[in-house]
Amino acid sequence: MNAGLSLARAVADAVLYEGYLLYPYRASSAKNQARWQFGVLGPPGAAESGAGEEPGMAADCLLEPGPAARVDVHLRFLHLQTRSAERADDGGFTPAEELIVGPSRWLSWDEATDQEITLGPYSLGQLAAGVRAPINVPATEDTEPVLDADGAIAGRLVRRRRQLRGELRLVAAQVATQVPAAAAGSAAVPAQAPLWRLRVTVENTAAATTDKRSAIELSFIGAHVLLAVHDADFLSVIDPPEWASAAAASCRQHRCWPVLAGPEGQRDVLLLSPIILYDHPAVAPESTVELFDATEIDEILTLRVLTLTDEEKAEARSTDARAAAIIDRCENMTAEELQQLHGILRNPHAGSPRGPGASGYGDFPGFAVPEYSDSEFSVPEYSVPGGDGASANNGADTPWWDPARDAAVDPESDTVFIDGVPVSRGSRVRVVPLRRADAQDLFFAGKSGRVTGVHFDVDGGTHVAVVLEADPAAELQEWYGRYLYFAPEELVPLAAAPPPDNGKEPSS
Fold first, then answer.
1. In angstroms, what is the C-alpha Rg of the chain?
2. Which of 88, 193, 221, 459 has its CA 20 to 30 A from that of 502?
3. Which of 312, 340, 336 is nearest to 326 (CA)?
C-alpha cells in the first residue's frame, strides 16, 4: 500500500465533498436547494445551453521516469443518486416529499455515491503511444423497505442512478530541458535525467442534453485524478527546479491543477485537483469532522451546529446520512477535541530557503531575513492600565493602548535594514511578495513604492508601510493612512536612503 497515496486520498476526499452539503445541513435551506460543487463534468451541450458544466478537464504534468516506470491512474468522482421517499398506500406506493414512520423521517433528496475507477499500470511506451480508456458506470435502482413498529411495510426508499459514460486519455512525450551553466571554477553540471510531459484528459461522453435535471444526473461530480508512479518521480509545475522551469511553463491546464501529493519530500503521487492547491496539501490534524466547507473555520462551524434546535437537527438527520453523521459527531465531541479546534500557530515559510541567493517571487532575488537579538532589538514596552507611564513625554491624557504613549516607537522616524540598506519613511522600494503571500499582494509584484513608516509589533515583528507610486490615489491613501504593509524580506531597496537623524539606531 502506497502511504503517500493514502495521505493524498484524505485531501482528495475533502476536494470530492467540498460543497456537497452546507450548514445548516437541511434540505429546506436555500443554499442546499441550489447546490454546486467543483469539478463537475457535464454531458456535451450542457454548458452551451446553460444547463450544466463543460464536459472535460485536462492537465499537463512533468515526470522523471526510470527504466521500469509505470503509472497508475485513479479517477474519482461523485455519482448523483436520487432518493425518493414513497408511502405505502392501498397495496402500492405513492411518492412523497417526506416519509414519517414512528420517530424516524426521511426526505426525498439527491444523495451521491463516491466512485473510484483504477486504471493501469501503464508503461512509458504505452503512454508515448497514447492511452484511451472508456469509463462506464452502469445505471442502478435499489429499494429499501421501511417498516413500522409492528414490522409491516410502511413505505420505501428508492435510490436511482443513471448511467455515466466517459473517456480518460493519457499521452506522454519527452521534453527538452535547460541544463544550468556551471559557475566559473566549479565542476561541470551533470546532465539531468530525461523529462517527460504527461497529459491527462477526462471527458464526459454521455448523450447531449439541454435539460438541467438530466445534466446533473449525467455528470461526474467533484471529479479529480490521483496518479501514482513506480520507478519514477513527478516534478512540481508550481515550483520546478531551474533546469525544468521552461518545461513547467509549457504545461497547460484546463479546469484542474496538478499538485504533488503525499508527505513532503515524496514525489510519487500527484493530484489533479479542480481546486487550486499548493504542493503537498494536507488536512489539519485538528480537523476531525468532515464539514464539506473548507473555507469555513471548523471551530465556528462546529459551535454553530451545536446551537441548532432539536427540530433543525432532526431535519438535518432526515436530509442525508452524511448530515446525520456531522450532527452526531459534533454532539459527541469531547471538550478536549473542541479545544484543539481553537487554533494553532504554524510557520507557513518553514523550510523555505532564505538569505542571499534564495529565490523570491517570480525572477526576483531572495532576501536576508532579519534575525533579532536582545542587543539589536527589543520589543517596545507599552504602559498598561494602572502602569506608571515610564516616559514623561508620554502624555497623561493618551490612552494606554495608543502607540503615542511610548516615545520609543515612532513609525515616521524608525528605520529597518533591508539587504544592508537603511529603509525609513521616504525610501523607495520594489515590492516582491513571497509565494505564500496574500493573493492580492501578488498583483503588486515588481511595483515600486514609497515607504511611509516602519512599524514594530509587540511580538517583535516588523511591518513596512508602503504607498505604490503607480497608484493614482497615492496621495489620498497616504493622507487617509491607508497603506499596504509588507515584511522587510518582501521589499528591495531601490536607492540608499540616509538614516533619519533621530538619535536611534536602525533595526537590522
1. 29
2. 459
3. 312
pLDDT in tens, 458-496: 788 899 999 999 999 888 888 888 899 999 999 999 964
Strand runs labelled E in 164-279: 164-175, 195-204, 221-235, 253-254, 257-260, 269-273
Say what the alpha-carbon torsion angle 449, 451, 457, 460 is, to the nearest 10 degrees. 90
* Cell matching residue 232: 519514477
User: What is the grid cell recorded at 468?
Assistant: 505604490
* CA 107 vs CA 29, 49, 95, 141: distances in Å: 13, 30, 11, 18
Alpha helices by DSSP H, listed for 18-134, are 46-49, 124-129
Model pLDDT for residues 203-248, shown as the tens digit of each residue? 999 999 999 999 999 999 999 999 999 999 999 999 999 999 999 9
Quickly count: other Cβ atoms within 10 Å of residue 164's Cβ.
Answer: 24
Give the integer Cα–Cα distance in Å for 207 and 165.
Answer: 9
Structure pTM? 0.69
| b/e sequence 478-493, b meaning 16+ C-beta within 10 Å | beeeebbebbbbbbbb
Q: Is 253 exposed, middle or buried (0-12, 13-18, 19+ CB in 10 A)?
A: middle
Strand partners, 86: 95, 156
Residue 437: pLDDT band by 50, 70, 90 thresholds?
A: low
Q: What are phi and psi of 125, to 5 degrees?
A: -65, -40
Which of 271, 269, 276, 194 is closest to 234 using CA atoms? 269
What is the rounded CA–CA span in Å between residue 415 and residue 499?
7
> What are the residue ranges of CATH 2.30.30 in the chain?
352-376+410-508
Return the CATH fold of 352-376+410-508.
Answer: SH3 type barrels. (2.30.30)
Which cell numbers hold the place of 332? Answer: 459527541
Q: What is the DSSP letter of 333?
A: -
* Closest by CA position to 415, among listed 496, 469, 361: 496
